[in-house]
Design a protein that fits this description.
Elements lengths: L2 H4 L2 E2 L5 E5 L2 E5 L4 E5 L5 E5 L2 E5 L5 H22 L2 E8 L4 E5 L2 E5 L6 E3 L5 E6 L4 E6 L2 H12 L11 E4 L15
Antiparallel strand pairs: 1-6, 2-3, 3-4, 5-6, 7-12, 7-13, 8-9, 9-10, 11-12
Length: 180
């Protein structure tokens, strides 16, 4: 039995969960999410917990069991607490700022790069620490927007300039051997 799929998902206060057939709707203070899951899995709400059960031990159901539980847990955590991803801007003259809701990046191009947040995503910029926070209630969307921002100027291995995740380690290269 899947260790992840077997664990119940606790429903915090202020979060409503509706299950209609294969659709799961989770509504909380941060937002509302709807997702359709495979029809063969049994998803039920029981005593403030969401339980996911599979019909048999076939490999397809075993694969879907833990993933379904993890997706439901991400929905519940997202609408109650939300998710964030922190990026760091490194480089001389590189900076980021907010212009209304839009993120404006000056990262070595001849023009500033403007990033418009999709619905459900917001940005916070700390100028002193040169950090960008991507905030939202959908974990997949937060990660994808952070990856898109990082791809504007990925970190390079010689001087470490670029946009990187906060926890990311950049492997540095020595550069030219003849330079002293």
């Amino acid at each position: 039995m899947s260790r992840i799929g077997r664990m119940p998902v606790m429903i915090p206060n202020g979060v409503n969960v509706e299950i209609k057939g294969t659709n799961v709707r989770v509504k909380g203070p941060k937002g509302e999410m709807v997702r359709t899951f495979p029809a063969n899995l049994d998803i039920s709400v029981d005593d403030g917990k969401i339980l996911v059960q599979r019909p048999s031990d076939e490999s397809m159901y075993r694969a879907l069991h833990g993933m379904t539980r993890a997706l439901i847990n991400n929905m519940v955590v997202g609408v109650s607490a939300g998710f964030q991803r922190i990026l760091e801007v490194n480089g001389v003259g590189y900076r980021s700022e907010l212009n209304g809701k839009n993120l404006v990046l000056n990262v070595g191009y001849s023009h500033p790069v403007v990033v418009e947040p999709p619905e459900g995503i917001s940005f916070e910029v700390e100028a002193r620490t040169r950090q960008i926070k991507v905030l939202g209630y959908d974990k997949e969307q937060v990660g994808q927007v952070a990856a898109n921002i990082r791809s504007i100027r990925p970190p390079e291995p010689y001087q470490g300039k670029g946009i990187k995740y906060l926890e990311e380690k950049i492997r540095r290269k020595a550069g030219k051997a003849g330079k002293v």
